[in-house]
Amino acid sequence: MATDILLGTHVSVSGGVHRAFERATKIGCATMQIFTKNSNQWTGKAFTEEDIASYKIARGKSTIDPVFSHASYLINLCATDPRTLTNSRNAFIDEFERAQVLDLRGVIVHPGSHLGAGERDGIRRIAESINLVHARTRGCSPLTVLETTAGQGSAIGYRLQHLQHIIDLVDDRQRMAICIDTCHLFAAGYPIGTEEGWHTMMTELDDTVGLARLAAIHVNDSKKDLGSRVDRHEHIARGLIGQRGFSLLMNDPRLAGVPKILETEKSEDMHEDVENMTYLRSLVRS
Questions:
Q1: How would you classify the pairing of strands 221-222 and 233-234?
Q2: Rounded alpha-carbon distances, angstroms, from residue 33 to 82, 188, 220
């Protein structure tokens, strides 16, 4: 039923990470995504014992699960500049340590941009970065969740095969998962607004990474055209993917248990998230 869907949104942690549960519960989320630190900084202020205690109390009172974090936008796991690469790897380690403290399901990260080095070199370097980060975070339970990209600039991950190639080069593949973003898929050239396009994408997903590795879905419409390679999120069914694409998503039985998370613009009262989630639930056939 529509009310049982694992549907949620990215939620602010302003005032303390524990506040995310209050905000998400208020608007009817069943799952959510957060930043565990400022998304435009390499490092974040360490959690205090009070922060952690307040978070655990709030989580214990909530039914929201699973919870994901999204890694800092500064991280580029295939950066060509040695200093940026080192900073990116260290920041990703920090993301895992913070996610471990909060017992999150996974850390969602954009794979990286090769900056002219070429996709093959970029894929190799991303896997090397992940192997290093995994080695430095042994015992951490959150998954490394690679997100599909729109393919802007030299971004890797605009084809599902890119994610599979990265995973193939990772030593500890049990820690690997992926997140598909509907806006990114569409902008990258996957015509998911049509039934044929949707099922072709899903077949490719299963044949490459495999549906078992799909940990989350970012549900966003697209302001830009199919194949534009431009990442611009739009509210559901107000963009160019359209109602049909989201109906296919919400009624695909293969995705029934996969968390679906909005990343669309919102005001402080989050009424846009309420409207988007209400619309998505209305598409579900009983």
A1: antiparallel
A2: 30, 23, 14
User: Rounded to an integer, what distance in angstroms lies between the CA atom of residue 187 and that of residue 239?
Assistant: 11
Fold of 2-282: TIM Barrel (3.20.20)
Provide the residue count of the chain. Answer: 286
Name the amino acid, one letter, at 219. V
Q: What is the mean pLDDT of residues 162-186?
A: 98
Question: For 91-112, what is each residue's pLDDT tens digit?
Answer: 999 999 999 999 999 999 999 9
Please state, in angstroms and rounded to a whole number, the distance separating the CA atoms of residues 181 and 183: 6
Q: Tell me the domain boundaries of the chain.
A: 2-282
Helices in 47-156 by DSSP H: which ranges? 49-61, 82-101, 119-136
Q: Is 74 helix (H, G, I), strand (E, B) or coil?
A: coil
Query: Residue 217 is encoded by which pair of tokens?
Result: 């879905």
Interval 251-282: pLDDT, tens: 999 999 999 999 999 999 999 999 999 999 99
Which whole number is the average pLDDT over 33-61?
Answer: 95
Radius of gyration of the chain (CA): 18
CA separation for the pair 57, 184 (Å, rounded): 36
CA 110 vs CA 49, 78, 211, 263: distances in Å: 30, 11, 19, 14
